């Protein structure tokens, strides 16, 4: 969902963007890389941090891009022109989603280095790269069907997406080093604090550097769009929205002048204002869902037109369904809605 109050944020670099295969310096030893994505959300931001590890000088990569020939080619250009002739010493991933982890195996093999990420997301990635999790296939189609998505063409396309995750994350490194909430990681003589977040991914790790007032926020805080918070088929009664909103409180103690380095959009200041905006956005969406459920028993598919005013492609519809179910589950599990399974196999929610 687009941010109607984006003007309350500040963009210190204006409209300056790094070109594919190029780097842009943000602070001493901090470089911005931007890679393309084949979706409506057409890019991901990746970060290079000057590092020193085991007596060697080099760089840490934070997030990887999807596994594609174009992304590999752009990385090779970065290696040739953007690393000052130094090697990559480690690869960090904020979470398991394909645009963040897709090339982790290739990068760690290419540079003979270790992947660092949370244990939950590492192990889920290993599972998803050999099957799929929440993004396509028969079980996802059945799950969305149980929440009112009955259009045969859409369901058939969802069934056909069984290779969605493995196609973009064909392999996950066999070993890794674990990141955990509250850890202080020394990267090039600077301390970066790990901040775990929940709801968008099982155990998303953001990185905060007090010395430079920099937050690599991953997907937890984005300036222009709201973070996707979805229920998926493997945990159908989950309450990720409540987890996500609680996780935003973990950034409350960060300085007001923190420069946020998001995975999508441009680096910005105004972290606390953006968190307020995100809370308000979800409060409004929850109120919309409650209003609909007061009028008549409602399923998630029927809410797509309520929650999303624009036309959705199939990729966006899968995320939108997950979001609609997340809002319903938050209200249901807090006792504000009741849930009934109809004789047609569809869950409908009503005001309790």
From TrEMBL:
Annotated Metallo-beta-lactamase domain residues: 43-264
Write down the Pfam families for this protein, in alphabetical order: B_lactamase-like_C (PF21221), Lactamase_B (PF00753)
- The lineage's top-level taxon is Bacteria
Family matches, as Gene3D superfamilies:
Ribonuclease Z/Hydroxyacylglutathione hydrolase-like, Winged helix-like DNA-binding domain superfamily/Winged helix DNA-binding domain
Cite the PANTHER family for this sequence.
Answer: ENDORIBONUCLEASE LACTB2 (PTHR23131), METALLO-BETA-LACTAMASE SUPERFAMILY POTEIN (PTHR23131:SF4)
- Name under which the protein is recorded: MBL fold metallo-hydrolase
What organism is recorded for this protein?
Pelomonas nitida
């Amino acid at each position: 969902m687009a941010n109607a109050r984006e003007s309350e944020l500040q963009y210190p670099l204006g409209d300056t963007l790094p070109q594919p295969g190029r780097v842009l310096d943000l602070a001493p030893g901090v470089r911005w890389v931007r890679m393309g994505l084949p979706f409506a959300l057409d890019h991901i931001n990746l970060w290079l941090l000057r590092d020193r590890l085991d007596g060697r000088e080099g760089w840490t990569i934070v997030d990887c891009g999807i596994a594609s020939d174009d992304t590999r080619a752009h990385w090779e250009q970065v290696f040739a022109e953007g690393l000052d002739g130094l090697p990559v010493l480690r690869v960090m991933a904020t979470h398991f989603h394909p645009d963040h982890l897709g090339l982790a195996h290739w990068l760690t093999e290419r540079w003979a280095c270790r992947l660092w990420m949370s244990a939950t997301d590492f192990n889920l990635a290993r599972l998803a790269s050999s099957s799929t999790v929440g993004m396509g296939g028969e079980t996802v189609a059945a799950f969305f069907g149980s929440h009112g998505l009955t259009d045969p063409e859409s369901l058939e396309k969802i069934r056909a997406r069984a290779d969605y995750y493995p196609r973009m994350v064909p392999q996950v490194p066999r070993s890794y080093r674990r990141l955990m909430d509250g850890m202080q990681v020394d990267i090039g003589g600077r301390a970066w604090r790990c901040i775990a977040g929940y709801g968008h991914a099982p155990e998303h790790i953001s990185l905060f550097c007090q010395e430079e007032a920099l937050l690599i926020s991953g997907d937890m805080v984005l300036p222009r769009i709201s973070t996707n918070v979805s229920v998926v088929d493997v945990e159908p009664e989950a309450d990720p929205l409540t987890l996500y909103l609680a996780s935003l409180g973990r950034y409350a103690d960060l300085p007001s002048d923190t420069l946020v380095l998001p995975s999508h959009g441009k680096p910005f200041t105004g972290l606390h204002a953006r968190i307020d905006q995100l809370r308000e956005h979800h409060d409004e969406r929850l109120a919309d869902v409650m209003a609909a459920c007061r009028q008549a028993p409602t399923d998630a598919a029927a809410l797509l037109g309520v929650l999303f005013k624009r036309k959705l492609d199939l990729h966006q519809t899968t995320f939108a369904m997950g979001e609609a179910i997340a809002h319903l589950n938050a209200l249901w599990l807090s006792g504000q809605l009741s849930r009934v399974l109809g004789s047609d196999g569809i869950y409908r929610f009503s005001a309790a």
